[in-house]
Amino acid sequence: MTSVVSRHAIQALKPLAISFAVAAAFSVTASAQTTTSTQDQVARVLVTASRTPVAAKDVLADNVVIGPEEIAQSGFTSIVDLLQQKRGIEISRTGGPGNVSSVFVRGAANAQSIVLVDGVRVGSSTTGAATWEAIPLSQIDHVEIVYGPLSSLYGSSAMGGVIQIFTKKGATGFHPSVSAGVGSYGTRNVEAGVSGGSAIDGERNFHYAISAAHEQADGFSATKPAAGTFSFNPDKDGYDKDSVSGQFSVDLAKGHEIGLTLLQSRLNAQFDAGLGFDDRNVEKIENYSLYSNNQLLPNWHSKLQLAYGIDQTDTDASFGKSMIRTRQRQFGWQNDINLGSDLLQLVAERREEKVDTDDGSVDGKRNTNSVAAAYQLKRDAHLASVSVRSDNSAQFGTHTTGSLAYGYHISSALRVNASYGTSFRAPSFNELYFPGFGVTSNKPEQGRNAEAGIYYEAGASHLSAVYYHNQINDLLVNTATCPVEQATHPFGCAFNVDKALLEGISLGASTRVGSFNLRGALDLQNPRDTTTDKTLARRAKRHGSVALEYAAGALKAGVETVFASTRFDDFANKKPLPGYALLNLYSSYDLAQNWSVFGRWNNALNKDYELAKNYATAGSNLFVGVRYGY
Which residues, if any, are the signal sequence (predicted)? Predict the structure, then answer.
């Protein structure tokens, strides 16, 4: 059966070619009218795509970086809303910013992508996904999004991509910062931090950064009346979130550094589960990491990392109280060996997961031991990489994944890439053990992805077009037809019955002309269950964003739109979610050195839309604040 993407591929090429021509013309105009910004002059560097710093122009995986300036000027209070602006990303949420949120990368499910914080995997082993609503945007310095399968580097769940969050880091000197803001729905935020560094002696330095924040909102009803008696409650569903992060490092000697990172967040959020009760979740995430970076030889760099994390949810609702806690211990040793212009990478890791519940329903633990090797080659205009990894667990056995990629610089501005990689996802503890849902014989999902892309980057002009074809076997879905031996599952279960195809074209473009910056993204995709030929739930076949920003002197102002076509709230495709387009306005003004005011008007046209069936979203809302910081 011919896919939607295949039918639209030729049509997509025409506007893409026009975009390339327009951007090329823009880049000439921009270079004549403006001075290239510092961000354009300095080569961008990514860590996530290859587990080591690599210049963006040499990265063979499709990626997007959200920098600290963009985060600060965005006016967002939620990382999920920030990610929604980027190509290849869709979101769903069961109410306001404090309610359960999901992030879909290139059509992959929330549990089919990995989230890292400063190199450490975070999330719940019961759901198999990150607790997005509890991750504090206020503690984030920058974000790297890498698309495509990365199981050969990171192991289980890296099927759709990897999103790595970097907390704030200290630099030489003393740098205080403070920010406060208020907005619609009783929203108010305050955050403060200090960072810096100093030389202990001629060869040793100490760096530090610590930040704390408090957020709260009165909110709005998470559900709509159509949700029904057992869900709808017209009360306001607000939240409180307190967070702190820190990074500390010291040079023991030249080329030898030890450090500590930490992130803590506590979210107390109300939700709806019917009339007459103040339903709420208290979600806590904690992440601690000790590391040692050592230059053992001129061409041999070693990194040891020990990490401990907690993801816990305490629920107090009309249907009862419960506690679910995931504890993870992670140990890693990475060795980067330079061989001329090439890099050999050897990795050994161990991940220990332990789940506790108050009723013992899904209690359990599993340990995964992993070894991996990668080789990156650079020869003039040619780039190549190969990687292989083996993950062994007593629970799901041994799984070997691999990746092969090639890139060629046609010119200094134009590059083409192609890659093939395999991936897998181990079943979550809920999919294995949850009463009336899990099946202990469930197997890991398996993925095979092929993609090709073309990238253009000249000064302030950036364009990209990527086609991907990601086939997933043994897809775990909630099916009404369970194995015969599951007589205790009369209403269905999670079981390996289906196959899925995540196929699409992802387009991105940005340029600058005079005082104007223009950016846009468009995804044409067809994420579907190929067994039933149904579109995967809550994923659109077309989605994207367009923004125009004006910057002159102390003023910066912008307008953006985010849009998505019709989606379905269920795998049977019987509950449609209408498409939507949102108009957002934002601005900032520098009052004096290090002082600025900022504001954001989201959903300015007061669009009534849904990210999940019968769950409410914010109407027209405003947030304004003041910031001091270096």
Answer: 1-32
